[in-house]
Every structure is written in structure tokens, then in C-alpha cells.
Amino acid sequence: MIRLWDLGQQRCVHSYAVHTDSVWALSSTPTFSHVYSGGRDLSLYLTDLATRESVLLCTKDHPILQLALHGDSMWVATTDSTVHKWSAEACNPQKVFERGCSFLAGNLSFSRSRVSLEGSTPVPVYKEPSLSIYGTPGIVQHEILNNRRHVLTKDTAGTVKLWEITRGAVIQNYGEVSFDKKKEELFEMVSIPAWFTVDTRLGSLAVHLDTPQCFSAEMYSADLNIPGKPEDDKVNLAQETLKGLLVHWLIKRRQKFGSQLSINGEVPSGKDVSTKILTASRVEVDSNADNDSAVFPPFEFSAASPPSIMTEGSQSGPWRKKITELDGTEDEKDMPWWVIDCVMNNRLPPRENTKCSFYLHPCEGSTVQILTQGKLSAPRILRIHKVINYVIEKMVLDKPLDSINSGGTFAPGMHGATGGDDSFRTGPKPWQTLKPSIEILCNNQVLSPDMSLATVRAYIWKKPEDLILNYHVLPSK
Questions:
Q1: Which end of the chain, C or N, has fewer beta carbons within 10 A?
Q2: Hey, what's the torsion of the CAs at 410, 416, 420, 424, to 10 degrees?
Q3: Please, where are the H alpha helices in 332-401?
Q4: pTM given for the model
């Protein structure tokens, strides 16, 4: 319904039943004699407030959200991303009614309106807009995949695409396929902590990072296919993504202020980013991070179609800039201090425990036992094939019990407490010429060597208590 209110009397004086569904947009002529209305029924009407006569100007393929009268034309915005311009005859609206096809708006319900049309559907006055500004299809559906790097989206054109978050790019266009079926096809049984959130309220993909949870996800460089980097180096996804986003800013900042930026977190006077950085407690330095501005290929963002960074500073308020438009003068008033500290100094805020505790026991009836006792600890991303190698090493070399340190972490070399797992690194070892076949089981289920401890805990173990793994030596052929 369209309702006309008398503000002096503080009551509704007229009601106009024109639309068949909710009215979402209104605009009146300069003299307030006629009103344009659009809404959920995809239709744009012109109504004479005095005579109650209405006419259908046009119909759309999408619900109408907003109307803007400009001269004799009406700009119409819908849930689609394209904006159309229609003739409105705002200066002389009677010209529209002279074309006929008008009806009388009811005042109680839609069933009592359109009495002059004898129940027929009104014919629109205009078939085509006078001008259209085309936009790209807006994203209306999304799903974050289990690998925490890819997001599946569907837009208003029905096209399903796969995005890589760490590069801000579409890596696969599936066309018009079933979103739910494609989501099932892409399912991976992996467990990686949620380090970002996504929304599509603007019709585009918006990725949000919040500290400290954004720094909880790590992957091995081998899984990211990073050339020239040791395959067992751990890569923090949020840290490398931030470095990729702000590489233009960092280069320009170093050009402006020199190398003093990276020395002890100090910055030139007047740009004191380090005030909060140096006073923060338990700031963690990632020992595996490179101390330069190099960006790995999986985290390179396109300069041809760069994403925008939206942030809300503590003083200047919200702003948005494309990553290529950053000039190096942005500081902690514009960007969070922990972001700047991460990019400039490779320092991360305190994070939740990234370790996974577990027990390693022989299978029931097994005659082979390795000398391990107590709880073990390793990074959550550790693969089962590294546990297999550990069992083989213990069996072949027959290491004494004191090879496991009092903290229960892998030792020597398996420094779980400091983030390293050196004994799991590849390279020639004396036991590699004697490789018995080992299976690792959990809940009587044989584990794939490519599974991580986190995946086993999430999908196989499914219990709150510490993980229990069993090893089994296969008979030799």
C-alpha cells in the first residue's frame, strides 16, 4: 500500500492499493501531485494523488530498491547491479495518462483496485529504458571451503566461481552449475583453523581479519608449492596475506623513510607506530619468516585489478583505498598497529596454542614396541607420514628412553615448544635404507599419510581428550 499522511492532523488521509507486493521505493514530482513507486513486485507505477489514477510505467526483472528523479527522467536501482534510466515526464505527468492503460487505485486492498481494468494485467507504457549503466553480477551466496584458502561463490547471473583468498582472484569459473553439488565435490577432509570471515552484503567478496585469531592458521610451504623454500617451513597464512596486500605500502614507506623502519621496530618521529608495539606484552617473533618484503607466489595480489583495504582507525575514522594507491604515509592512525608490526617487523601477537598433544602406542597384539612413554606434542599441521618416519627411526636406531624430553615434545630436534620439527625434515638419514612398512591407526581406522594431526582429531578421533595413535608394522613381503 501507498499511504498519504497529513502531518498536521497526524493521521493517514488516503491509501492507494497499486502494487501486488511490498512497496520499497517512492519519489514524488516537484509539486507533490503525483508519486512514483516501486518495490518487490518488479514494477514501477505513477499515481495521481488527487484522482487516484495509476499507470504502469515499466516492469523489471528484479525488485526495485531505489528511485531518483532527475529532470524528466527516473533512475531505477534494483537488486541487480545494473542501473536503468526511464522517461518519467515529471514536468507534465498527464502526458503518461493520455496514453491510456490507467486504472483506479483502491483504498482498502489490492483485490478492490484496478476496477477500470476488469481484472486484466496492466500494460507497461515503456518497453525499454532510455539508458542503462551496466554492472557486474553481484555475489549472493558463498561458502568457505575446509582448506581455508578457497571460497565458492554464486552471483546473480547464476555463475559459480572459486576464489583464492590469499591472492584475491578467481581461480576457476564453473559457469551455471549447482552451487550445492559443486560444494560437495570440493569438500576436503582437512582441519585448518578459521582465520578470516567473509560477507557478501555489498555484492562483492569482503574478507575480514581480526587479531589474534587471524594468525591461528599455518601450512607447510610444500602444501603451498612455494619454490625455493624448504618444504617443511611453516607459513602463517594471515601474515603472508598481509604482506602481499601491503607490499606496495612497505616499498613506498621504505623509499620515504629509509631502512631505519626495520630496525628494532623504530620509525621516524611523528610516525611513531612502535609506541604500542614496544609496550605490548609477549609479542611473538616468527622465526621462520623472512626479514624482507618478499612476497611468495601464493600471496601475490594483482596490480591490474587490486582489492581495496577497508579499515577503521582510532582517530581518523573509516577509509578505503586500493592497495596500489597506498603512498607509504599511512600509519597507526589509519591501520591497526598489529598489522603494521606484522608487515614491517615480522612480529605476531600472542596466539592460541598451535600444538596437538597425543599418545603413540603399539596396536593390540603387536610384538614391536618403540621406547616412548607419556604424552607427545607436535604442530597441528604435522602430517601422519612424519609420525611414520618417527616410528621407523625409533625402531631402527633403537633410541633410548631419554630421547623424549621431560616436556613430552619430540626430541632431540623435535622442538614442539618452539615451533620447529627438525626431526621430521627431509634429507638423508641412516635409517632410510631400512624402511619397514608402518601403518598409523586411530579408532581402528588406518590413516592416510597425508592427513594432519588436526584433521585426524577433527574427523577420526572426535573426542575432547588427548588423541591416541596406534602404530602397526606390516609383515614384509
A1: C
A2: 30
A3: 337-345, 384-397
A4: 0.71
